[in-house]
Amino acid sequence: MIYNALTYGYSNARIKALAAQLLDRTKIERMIRADSVDLAISVLTDSTYSSELNELAIEYEGASLAEHATIRHFARVLSKILKMAPSESRVIIETLLTRWDIQDIKTILLTKHLRLGEEEALRLLMVCGTFTQDEIEGMLRADSVPSVVKYLGNTVFGLSLHAHVADYEHGGDINSLLAELDKIYLLRMEEAVYETDDRLVKALLKADVDARNLMTILRCRSRDSCQPHEIMSWIVPAGNLGLHELEPIVLANDWRPLVAKIGDYDLTLAEKAYGSDNDLTHFEYALEDMVMRHVQRTFRQSVLSLGVIVGFIYIKEDETRRIRRIIRGVEHGLSPEKIRESIYRTI
Hints:
Helix content is about 75%, strand content about 0%. The chain is mainly α. It has a domain at about 200-300: V-type ATP synthase subunit C fold. A hairpin with a 2-residue loop joins strand 1 and strand 2 (about 265). Helix 5 (about 60-85) packs antiparallel against helix 18, helix 16 runs antiparallel to helix 17 and helix 18 runs antiparallel to helix 19 (about 335-345).
């Protein structure tokens, strides 16, 4: 305990101070009920997001302002955490940073694949990982999916994606590229799972791996776009679900009953909702909930440990995701009930 106090005392105290600045339920509800994006943003001006909103108000307005400001704020919080975190925790934190690098690459690949404009990509990018702004802009300047992969060159991302470029150019299916990126992150997560001795952090990371493995399988199965051997090559069994539980979903003609209850996870409601509209976001939200329950337990039960840091990173990311969903919902005129459904779900 003395060692933990010396190692994690300062960083945990700072993290708890940051946690006290999270948006409360009252502010979130005010944003949900806002009649316009500007009114929703006005709620954020009375929070820790005010600095970023003021800085970016010259360049952006409306939903673009809110999205860019929340991203910049999140990036700054991550930078603070990385600076204050003890050296023992850096491997885990740097692994988590990889997820936003991969998310940004996937966003850019998809915008090139769908031939969307640069502004659409900018609104979705996180720029919270290890890529510099110049590197992100370099990828954005690429004129096609193969050009983005070429720009990534000899990085671990470029080397992994290069083998799938020919298939993409031949068939136009981007799923293999996206799945390969997910596998890179899962392999990093596998290293992190074995790196940490923190019981709560290990359980959280394993749950996250399960969620990502399942979504990789479901995306492929829902479209029937990949061969079973391809799907299995993208699975990293470093979570609680082993290959003996995941492989049947890959091979079964009717995979839905196998997903409804798998391991200790109950996805019955998501499976039922999927049956009505074939929308995978039901599974995505349910798995987000599952991971966030581990996150909340890790953050609340951890004392002078890595769990406080890791838990808060996930919590801050979830706040960022919720704000952006609210802004998009208000922008598109969704009812407060629909917006609540997308951000609160079952937590």
